[in-house]
Every structure is written in structure tokens, then in C-alpha cells.
Amino acid sequence: MAGRAESVFRSANFRRLWFSQVVSKAGSNLTEIALAVFAFNASGGKPLAYATVLALSTVPPVLLGWLAGGFVDRWDRRRTLVTGDVIRAVLVASIPFVGHLWWAYVVVFLSQCIGLLYTPNQRAVLPDMVGEGRITAAAAAINAGTSAVDIPAYLLGIGLLTRVGLKPTFLGDGLSYAVAAVALFGLALPADARGESRSRHTADFWLRFRSELRGGFEYYRDHALVQKFLWLGIVGAIGLEGLNLLTATLMRTLLHRPEANLGLLLAAQAAGVLGGSALLGDRLRQRRFYPWVIGLGFFLLGASDAGLATGRLIVVDLLFSVLAGIGVALVNAPTRGWLLAVVPATVRGRVFVARGIGLGVASVVSVLGAGLIAQIFGTESALWALTLVLLLTSAMTLLALIPEARRERLLEDAGRARAAID
Questions:
Q1: The pTM is what?
Q2: What CATH number is attached to the domain comprising 390?
Q3: Would the pLDDT of 378 be above 80?
Q4: Three-point CA angle 238, 280, 366, nearest 5°
Q5: 118 Cβ partners below 8 Å, 6+ apart?
Q6: What tens digit of pLDDT does each residue of 166-194 get?
Q7: CB 388 within 8 A of CB 295
Q8: Number of folded domains in the chain?
Q9: For residue 133, is it within any domain?
């Protein structure tokens, strides 16, 4: 395990990428808590205000994801990453100075728009940094790093909000984006990993644009495994994303604690993600085990929601939040590793953008659906609804991915047999 980790961090480019992701994630955790407190304070305690913040964070992939898909593989990847962090630094830091809820809505929306180009590019450069054989180890290293910083960042957020207020908390996130931009500025990517910088003024620009955009969606149509991952991701997101809304309302309505304390549940979930990543370690070398790991992850997420629906003590809810974090780790690491291993570098950006559109639609459905159920029937009923969806996703994962894993293993065995004969 140690040797595997060392081989990943031997790349200076990967170290820069890893550092930038860890730093910006720490800052984002501060804003995650601060936005909930800001929304409740600015609206006089109305949960709908925070629900609107979450809904706006999921709208850009739905409205503009198709447009981003035409550009994501055309622009220089390093410039896209650096520029995205600089702009987000300014936007987030401006929230407490403007001081209006509508501006927070605008910042959330614009930040997510930037993420439409940022995230696919960040994922697309990963295989070129560490090599195809270490993609899963690199993804796990990033996941472990961002998870490790989650706990102190959430606790720091609680401390900042309760002792010095909202302004330093938002400024901390802005500073983290600026530091990440500096780290990414030193990336040295090979020419074929930079994206294609083409002039926008060529006569055939829109023809190429439509062709490249269509290529991302057509890849899903022609590749059954990637298509299955898309549908599983959509159903899973419907069961998962609504929990972001219910965590804040749960803290307020069921546990009767100030919203800033939702950082405790988020920190517990982060501890679970870290523990789940450590549990996986370097054990996911053979993809025939991936379906079982992903299916177990969705099952644990469903069990966690059921526990939160019945628990009334903060200690009990903390334990179920840890369980949810373990489930997230078991789902994310093998899913990303499998997709990065099978999708060619030339279309990775567009494929992830197309995936983001589907997950964005699911997130909107989940947030609005959970909010509607909670408003009419209560937070407990909304949590039970999410539980049912996640358990369904667990069963679907096993049915859909086990045959694919077996098919890949047969192809690998056949390839080794031919190589032995040759």
C-alpha cells in the first residue's frame, strides 16, 4: 500500500493537483456551513431560503451543462483551472460585503457554472499525470486528502461562525481558492493533455462545437457500461442529494440546535469518508469486486438515512453520519476509477459533462422533492423516502454491474491467453 501511494505522489503535477483540491475543499467546507447560517439569518429562519441556495447549486448543470460540453475539451486545461479558482475566490469573498441573500444566490449559481468547466478538466488531466495503471490509487489519494481536511475545516467553521462571525468564514474560502490557483499555475501538462485551443472565429466553429458536444452524448449511447453508470448515478443522486437540505432542517427541527452545529454532522460524515477510503486502501485492484463495493455503499447510505429519521440524540445522529460517509467512499472511489479507466482521454471531458447534466437533473429532483415532502409530511418522512431510493439503487447496482465486471474479466483472460500463445 505504501509503495503504491509513493508512486502516485512521485508526480509533481499530481502533488500540485492534490494540494489544490485539498486546500479548496477546506475553504468550501467553511462556506457550506456559512451559507446555511447566512440564509437562515437573512430570511428570518425560513428553510426555503436555504433550499433555494441548494437548488441553485444544482441548476447550472441542467441549464448549461450541454453548452459546457462543447468547450471543455477545446480550452487549455491549466488556464481553465487557474481562472476558475481566481474567479470563485472573488465571488465567495464578496458575499458578506454585499450582505444580501439575492447576491448569495447569484454567487452560488455562478460558482457552479464555473464548476461545469473546472471539474471535468480536473478529472480529465488525472490519468495523464499518474498513468492509466494508477488512476484508482490517485483518485483514492485525492479522496483521502479532501476527506482528511474535512473534519478540521468543519470544526474550524463552527468556531469561526460562533466566535468571529460570517465575514472571516467567507473570506477563508476565498483565500483557499486563491492558494489553489497559485498551486495549479505551475502545472506542466503534455501537449495532448492540455485541451485544444482553437479560434472562436473560424467559420466552422459551430460545426465543430456541435460535433464535439454530440460526441459526448453518443459515447453513452454506444457504451453500455458507461450508460449504466449514468443511470445508477441519476437514481443514486435522487436518493442522496436531498440529504444536504434535510441535514440543516434536522438540526433545527429535530435536534433543536443552532444551524452552525450542522458542521458536527458534516464532520462526522467526513470522518466516515476518510475511514471508508482507508478501508478500501489499495484493495480495489480487480474490478470484479467493484459492483459489490458500490452496492454496499448505497446500502449503507440508505441505512444511515433510516437511522437519522429515527434518532433524536446528537450522538446517535453522529454515528449514522459516520456510516453515511463510509457509504460515500465505497460508492465514489470505484465509480470514478472504473470510468476513468474505460473512457478515452480524448472524450473524458465531454463524457463527464454529459454525466453532470444527468446528475444535475437528479439533484434538482432530490432537493425539491425532499423539501416538498419535509414541508408537508415532516423531515422524518423525507428521510424515509430517500432511504427507499438508496436501497433500490443498491439492488440496481448489483444487477447492472456484476455482468459487466464478469464480461471484462473474460476479455482480460482471453487477452492473456492470446498473449501466451503469441
A1: 0.74
A2: 1.20.1250.20
A3: yes
A4: 5
A5: 80, 81, 84, 85
A6: 888 999 989 999 999 998 887 776 555 54
A7: no
A8: 1
A9: yes
